[in-house]
UniProtKB/TrEMBL annotation:
Gene3D superfamilies: MFS general substrate transporter like domains
Protein name per its UniProtKB record: MFS transporter
GO molecular function, one term: carboxylic acid transmembrane transporter activity
Location of the protein in the cell: Cell membrane
Main location: membrane
Residue ranges crossing the lipid bilayer per the database entry: 21-41, 61-80, 92-112, 118-138, 150-173, 179-198, 257-277, 297-317, 326-343, 349-372, 384-408, 414-432
Domain Major facilitator superfamily (MFS) profile: 25-438
Bilayer disposition of the protein: Multi-pass membrane protein
InterPro entries, A to Z: MFS, MFS_dom, MFS_trans_sf, Sugar_transporter_CS
């Protein structure tokens, strides 16, 4: 009786420790993604000022190219993140990316002209693109199976929250201090939270075990109060050393996974094009259609608020009904909302349509990422997310350039129709994506 009671107590203690660690990891990763969201969307806040200031050197066409430079860098960062995470660890990559993009975003405030701003946005983008795969892998690993979708959704809600802060920054900072200060202040929160992150964010246990660092993994488990892992084979170190680093990410293109990997990348292409295209160009489009700077930034604010609120409800619905049953309608409803935005009408229904577009843009991408994570084993999860987000970010490069030329041609409203078509394309690709062996195993 006493033995049973002791075992139950240990189990409850371990469960409580696991829950505590999950909350800490999710909260830290959320904070890092908030800063990433601010740095990424901050250019959208200053864009209307740049293209409407005489003799600034900016126009809709070259501003679109400057906007795309952050996404060029993000593509490099996302494609590199999986390999770097497998080699150096998720924690190291996440912290390194945070410091990297915070410094280069701050330096954007010193940029003189489109060339230098574009170059600095490209450099900042490398860190911006690399942090999400690393924080996603950490959050999903430490979250319980029951609450993974919710934890992941909460973590990625940091992106639109960062967008809200960027819009508020534009509304308050630009009229008083000028657009450069939107970038200058980006370094402040990073400096404040970095010491806490360094002391509290744990490394991935999966990474430690798959790189043969079993003693370090067990020490970390003990420190966190988690259950010890099963004993590793005596020759595990040798077996690991014989596997080349490049082979560890090859599973995402193996038999049973290739088609899904390609379709995930294509769906992410259209999903990210739509979401970040809106985040970048929405104030510029609204300004070009006759709204003043304040109202244009209000639309950006509503877009991100809709993304925050809606993504939580989408995550709960997905846990109940499954990925495809929610993902496909999410993008189709978003497409309808974007078509509505092409019609001239009073501001309240436009704001409602904007909020719905935010729900679909951010919520849909969260669900794609969750779909990807469920479709691969823990060993290849970071590489799979890095691949889909990296390849998909090519859409974020194309989007700002295309919309820039649409606005330059005097047809700003057509930008919403373009985004609607991309949302429909994402929905169709996701509908036809096949289930992988790992996904089928988890469903069973």
């Amino acid at each position: 009786m006493n033995l049973s009671t002791g075992a139950t107590t240990r189990s409850e203690t371990t469960s409580a420790a696991a829950s505590r660690v999950s909350i800490i990891v999710t909260a830290i990763c959320w904070g890092m993604v908030v800063l990433e969201g601010y740095d990424l969307i901050s250019f959208g806040s200053v864009l209307p000022v740049l293209i409407n200031t005489p003799d600034s050197g900016y126009n809709p066409a070259n501003a679109g190219i400057v906007a795309s430079m952050a996404f060029v860098g993000a593509t490099i960062g996302a494609l590199s993140s999986g390999w770097l995470s497998d080699r150096y660890g998720r924690r190291a990559v996440a912290i390194g990316c945070l410091g990297w993009f915070s410094v280069f975003t701050m330096m954007c405030g010193f940029a003189d002209g489109p060339f230098w701003l574009g170059l600095l946005r490209l450099l900042a983008g490398i860190g911006i693109g690399g942090i999400v795969p690393a924080t996603s892998a950490l959050t999903l690993e430490y979250a319980s199976k029951k609450h993974r979708t919710l934890a992941y959704t909460l973590m990625l809600s940091g992106v639109p929250i960062g967008g809200v802060l960027a819009a508020i920054s534009g509304l308050t900072v630009i009229p008083t201090l000028g657009w450069r200060w939107v970038f200058f202040i980006a370094i402040v929160p990073a400096l404040i939270v970095l010491p806490f992150i360094l002391s509290k964010l744990p490394e991935s246990l999966t990474f430690l075990e798959h790189t043969g660092q079993f003693a370090r993994a067990e020490a970390l488990r003990a420190k966190l109060g988690l259950e010890p892992a099963a004993a590793a084979p005596a020759d595990a170190h040798k077996a690991h050393d014989t596997v080349p680093a490049t082979a560890r990410s090859g599973g995402i293109f193996s038999r049973g996974y290739l088609a899904a990997s390609l379709m995930f990348a294509a769906a992410t292409f259209f999903g990210l094009l739509t979401w970040f295209g809106l985040g970048t160009w929405l104030p510029g489009i609204m300004r070009a259609t006759g709204y003043d700077l304040g109202n244009s930034l209000v639309f950006l604010l509503v877009l991100n608020i809709g993304a925050i609120i809606g993504s939580i409800f989408i995550a709960v619905a997905t846990d109940r009904f499954g990925n495809k049953k929610i993902l496909v309608p999410t993008y189709m409803v978003m497409a309808i909302a974007l078509v509505i935005l092409t019609i001239k009408m009073p501001q309240p229904p436009l704001l409602l349509a904007m909020a719905i577009a935010g729900v679909g843009g951010h919520g849909g991408q969260i669900l794609i990422n969750r779909f990807v994570s469920r479709s691969y084993g823990a060993r290849h999860r970071a590489s799979a997310l890095g691949w889909s987000l990296g390849a998909g970010r090519l859409g974020t490069i194309v989007g700002p350039i295309v919309i820039g030329y649409i606005v330059a041609g005097g047809k700003a409203g057509l930008g919403f129709a373009f985004f609607a078509a991309c949302a429909v394309a994402a929905a169709l690709l996701l509908w036809f994506t096949p289930a992988t062996p790992a996904f089928k195993a988890e469903e069973e």
